[in-house]
Fold:
Amino acid sequence: MLIKIRKDNAILASEITDKSVYQDRRQFIKASGTLALAGAASLAGIGALSVSREARAGKKISGYKERAYVTDEPLTPIEDVTHYNNFYEFSTDKEGPAVMARAFNPHPWSIKVEGEVGKPGTYQLEDFIKPHTLEERIYRFRCVEAWSMVIPWVGIPLANVIKRFEPTSKAKYVEMVTLYDPQRMPGQQRAVLNWPYVEGLRIDEAMHPLTMLAVGLYGEELPNQNGAPLRLVVPWKYGFKNIKSIVTLRFTAQEPKNTWQVTNAREYGFYANVNPEVDHPRWSQARERRIGEFLKRKTVMFNGYADEVAGLYAGMNLHKFF
Ligand code: MTE
Structure:
């Protein structure tokens, strides 16, 4: 396993996976072969052809920088990334969000910044994240349900966004909230979760250079089912921390209550760091199934990002703060 912070002479993502291969949907589908497609189709429970048609609909993002974090592991095919989702605002089935979120229009989009900041306000997405600041980062993504993917995100470090709003010394946490609009997000018409979906990070986790706000994947704007137009990506934490379709950033002195913790505090904590030594009460976290692979692989501490992030938790009992 190889994780690199991009230095000037470090490997580009394109040197590992030829970008032209994944940027051209047709070519990509051909290159990924029958096995990957069969995997996508069986996982998603829908035909491979309709899967690829939808995946081609994405709008390309141009001009982002290819750098930052790189892994030598193969990328998860875009069909799987966009058709095996958790997004309860649209559906509780893995294949549901791609279908149920099709009509969702994430534009225009504004983000409220409030709480312990010098510059609170409501910002249009275009002002919140400037296109020329975007970069691509390839991260492993590990869901608490013990499956994983490798995804090329396009976005910017959350720290770069936060600094502009000048958090006060009382800002110890950042709470993030998903859009609440049951008309546009039909899953919210049922009380499956305590809506709106809320997540939070400690301020030092939020400011960590690995933490990213993503607006795209595979060089395209985020598909609706992946959290358009703006979602969090924290690669050393379980997938549920990666809140989608964010409308509020709230800086607080108190630790926020995240949705899954509110739903079941015995099973889901605030930290949600990937940790093979702390099992979920109902299943082991020691191994995971990489989507598209048959055999399970070992789960690695902090999802393989320990060198970068272990220091954030020095001295903490990770069995208690799970
Ligand atoms: N964000 C919102 N608003 N609603 C959700 O249901 N699911 C979470 C997370 N973010 C979820 C969410 C979970 S459990 C996971 S594993 C990831 O999104 C899945 O992201 P993906 O569908 O892009 O793989």
Q: What stands out?
A: Confidence is low (pLDDT under 50) at residues 1-56.
